[in-house]
Each structure stands twice: as structure tokens, then as C-alpha cells.
Amino acid sequence: MLRGHRDFVDRAAYDEFLREVVMRRNRRNAAAFRLEREQLMDLPLRRTTDFVEEEARVTRCSTFTVRGILYSAPSRLIGHRLKVRVYGDRLDCYLSGALVHTTSRGSRGGDNRHALNYRHFIESLKRKPQAFKGLAFRDQLFPREAYRRTWEQLEARLTQREACKVIVGLLELAALDGVEAVLAARLNALLVDGKLPDLKALREEFAPRHADCPVVNVEMPPASSYDDLLGKEVA
User: Where would I find the Transposase for insertion sequence element IS21-like C-terminal domain in this sequence (predicted)?
Assistant: First the structure.
């Protein structure tokens, strides 16, 4: 109502808008607040409850729904019923009293009511790569625009089997620490040149190297050598 629309670029932009509104209203009441501050009591020692608790079951697709928004969860939670604490900016998921998953809270604005993390689907997609094409929420799994555009080129120029295999491999690489952004830059460069990504070459470049364990030779002393210590006095 204040802005005339509810479209924000991201959560940070929404938080900044709220901060400006609160500060503007606080300035109008600053003089009155200074008078009341002297009479205020100390805050309670414990934080008050600032969440709403709901229950949600994780489906076999590693998803669960809270307040009309579809979220993803690690595959190890499939089949479990979670206690979900809904905060203003996040969801904390508990299983048997233990915090097992935390995710940013999704927005109900517009037609996009998904808050999915592609990393939660990698293992299942690796077992059945061709399932990627038929996913109802497929477009929500691309972490950056470069991955979506790459999929469009793969789908147009390769068979379905090969296209799904390559995009799942690219998403697996992107899930590695620190690789998502740099791999997106490489994909953008390939798109400009009109080339398709070479999954094998990209794995050689971005996948972590497995160092060989050193060979350690341990020489065990004969057990009889310990008998010599029995007759000696300890200094």
C-alpha cells in the first residue's frame, strides 16, 4: 500500500524498505519516546516467541509445503514429519527436537511459490538424469541464468538423454564449494561462442583433485624388547 506494488528485487531490498519506513516513523515520535524511555523497564531475560510452528512431511521428491510455498530439504529427511518454525525471514526445521534444516522463507507474491535448492536434488537426478526434463519445478533448479540458457541450447541441439545427462553433471559441478559463479561465467562465454559445454573437460578443470595418501611404513619392534625395560629402574 505504501509503495503501490509489492515487487522487490530480493529479500535485502524488502528489509531495506522496512527499515526506512520504521526510521521515518520513529523520527516523528522521537520526542515522545525520549520521555517514555525513562519509565521503561528492562527487557525480559529470555527472548519471546517470535515464530509460528507448523508440521510438514518431506515427500519422496525431497519437498515439503508450508503456507502454500514448496520448499526443498536434504534427501535424508524424506518420509519424516518435521516441526517447522516459521520466522519472518527463515524456516527452522526440527526432527525429534534437533535442528536438521534451515532455509530462507519463500514469498507468496506472483506465480512463483517455490523456494527450492538445486543441491537437494543432485543425488536423485544422478540416478535418473532423464527425470530432469519432466520435473514440474525444473525451471526453479537453475541457480543462475547461465544454467537455464545452457539447458535451452542442450535441449535444442542434443538428444534428450544426452541433454539431461550434461545439465545434471553441470549442476553437480555447480554444487561444489565456490564453483557455481565461476562455472556460470564459463558457460556464458561458451554461449557467446555458440559452443556446447564439454562436461568431461569442465570436470577436469573444476572438480577437486583427489590426493594420493602417502605410504607410511611402520616398523614394529619385537615384543621381547619390552622385557629389557622390566629390570630397569625408572629415573
Answer: 51-101
